[in-house]
């Protein structure tokens, strides 16, 4: 079994940031090839839409403050500040407890994932915790009564060449927005825009709206790269041999 947790801790140590089961990584956006004329064309699904299918990877996106003008401190509401302080001083990193990362955190984790697509549904298979989410792309709306979940209730639609996923109905306990302990509430609204500019790259743009905790929406974007032939996602059994959690060694906040 590949020891993902140890790998992430080793990466964190290299960057002088100790996070339980979550490594610090690069912030910002990966860049597409300098010469787009040499890029392989975007593959197409049978219905003519861009085919997003494949195995994708990218660097962990750490220190989300850099993606918000003035940093999160400038837009946290009083309730949001209290929730952030709670996460830093009283909450254990949910990933250290083997809880699902949800979105947008799963998409900035630095752990590979797979997309499977057909005409009416797009599935995301995450190596992180061996989790998945499946998004209907059939014109439906959100249901009236949503059972809160880590990944929320997502519905998709195509906007030209871009798949747009609209998600609401998130859990507001034991769930962090990112690896830095920033919180989100139960009214968080996440809009993702996924597109494939060429065969080897997947563009991802995210807008988060959470009026309980943040005074205005914020966005970030990045580009994932298709994994080399032969590389695929693997089993990530977080509950197996979790010595830090089961031995009571996890601390609170983003440190240990």
Please provide a written account of the structure:
With 256 residues, the protein is an alpha+beta fold. It has a single domain, classed as Calycin beta-barrel core domain (Lipocalin), CATH 2.40.128.20. It is built from 3 helices and 9 strands; from the N terminus they run αβαββββββββα. The chain has a 9-stranded antiparallel sheet, with no helix packed on it. A hairpin with a 4-residue loop joins β3 and β4. The longest helix is centred in the N-terminal third of the chain and has 12 residues. It is globular.
Summarize the helix and strand pattern as letters: HEHEEEEEEEEH
Number of strands: 9
CATH superfamily: Calycin beta-barrel core domain
Q: Kindly provide the name of the CATH class.
A: Mainly Beta
Lateral strand order in the biggest sheet = 4-3-2-1-9-8-7-6-5
C-alpha termini separation: 24 Å
Q: Overall mean pLDDT score?
A: 86
Q: Proportion of β residues? A: 15-25%
Structural class: alpha+beta
Q: Into which percent range does the helicity of residues fall?
A: 10-25%
Biggest sheet layout: 9 strands, antiparallel
């Amino acid at each position: 079994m590949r020891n993902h947790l140890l790998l992430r801790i080793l990466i964190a140590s290299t960057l002088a940031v100790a996070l339980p089961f979550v490594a610090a990584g690069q912030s910002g956006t990966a860049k597409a090839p300098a010469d787009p004329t040499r890029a392989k064309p975007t593959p197409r699904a049978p219905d003519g839409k861009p085919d997003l299918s494949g195995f994708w990877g990218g660097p962990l996106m750490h220190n989300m403050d850099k993606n918000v003008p003035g940093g999160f401190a400038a837009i946290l509401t009083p309730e949001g500040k209290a929730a952030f302080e709670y996460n830093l001083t009283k909450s254990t990193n949910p990933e250290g407890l083997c809880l699902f990362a949800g979105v947008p955190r799963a998409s900035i984790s630095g752990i590979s994932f797979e997309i499977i697509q057909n005409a009416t549904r797009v599935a995301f298979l995450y190596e992180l915790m061996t989790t998945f989410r499946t998004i209907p792309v059939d014109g439906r709306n959100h249901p009236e009564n949503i059972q809160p979940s880590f990944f929320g209730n997502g519905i998709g639609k195509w906007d030209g060449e871009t798949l747009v996923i609209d998600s609401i109905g998130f859990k507001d306990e034991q769930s962090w927005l990112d690896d830095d302990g920033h919180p989100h509430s139960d009214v968080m609204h996440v809009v993702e825009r996924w597109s494939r500019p060429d065969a080897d790259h997947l563009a991802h743009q995210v807008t988060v709206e959470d009026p309980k905790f943040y005074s205005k929406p914020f966005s970030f974007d990045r580009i994932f790269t298709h994994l080399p032939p032969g590389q695929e996602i693997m089993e990530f059994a977080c509950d197996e041999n979790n010595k830090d959690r089961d031995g009571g060694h996890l601390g609170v906040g983003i440190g240990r």
